[in-house]
Amino acid sequence: MQRDLVEQARRGDHDAFEALASLAFDGLYALAHRILRDPDRTDDAVQECLIRAWQQLPGLRDPDRIEAWLRRLLVNACHDESRRTRRRSREVRVLPFEQAGGRDTAADLADRDELERGFLRLSVEQRAVLVMTHYLGMRSAEIADTMGVPVGTVQSRLLYATRAMRAALDADARPVLVAVGGRE
């Protein structure tokens, strides 16, 4: 069914493309939001991804790989959006978190806040690899295919992203010393 929609959309059928976009939207939005951490920038990146998809759809070689192709377009749009704005949100947004017990303690909130601050210090490429690995559960080969890079590059980015996240969390954990008399 999806292959038929892709083929119809490639021939210029707006309704078929709208159906494809509707099927992919939630997943694209979730991925972009976890990379960019800002709803407005997320909206812009997803919209840009879908515009590029419509424009480049006739050149799609394998209609069965539409999902990986859309994710690649989205990661590129997130990168462009991040470069375009060059700003980081100072507001910490807490993403919905589902727990088995349904309770959320102060320690859990503090941990999520700490992770969010660390995540915002990473580059878009590092965020994308972490999100695809840990949120989407994708393997390195799938991520490499999605991002259009070799598997070794994905593994390297994942290693550096993990190290950068650890360094950011360690830096936040260090106490801040303030000299007596109000001077630092």
Short recap of the structure:
70% of the residues lie in helices and 0% in strands. The protein is an all-alpha fold.
Distinctive features:
Rna Polymerase Sigma Factor, Chain: A, elongated, mainly alpha, 2 domains, Arc Repressor Mutant, subunit A, 184 residues
CATH fold label of the largest domain: Rna Polymerase Sigma Factor, Chain: A
CATH structural architecture of the largest domain: Orthogonal Bundle
Question: What portion of residues is helical?
Answer: 55-70%
Instruction: Look at the structure and give the CATH class of the largest domain.
Output: Mainly Alpha
| H/E series | HHHHHHHH
Report the β-strand fraction as a percent range: under 5%
What's the number of extended β-strand segments?
Answer: 0
* The CATH homologous superfamily of the largest domain: RNA polymerase sigma factor, region 2, helix turn helix motif
Low-confidence stretches: none
Helix run count = 8
Structural class: mainly alpha
Structural commentary:
The protein is 70% helix and 0% strand. The chain has two domains: 1-86, RNA polymerase sigma factor, region 2, helix turn helix motif (Rna Polymerase Sigma Factor, Chain: A), CATH 1.10.1740; 106-175, Winged helix-like DNA-binding domain superfamily/Winged helix DNA-binding domain (Arc Repressor Mutant, subunit A), CATH 1.10.10. It contains eight helices and no strands. By secondary structure, it is mainly alpha-helical.
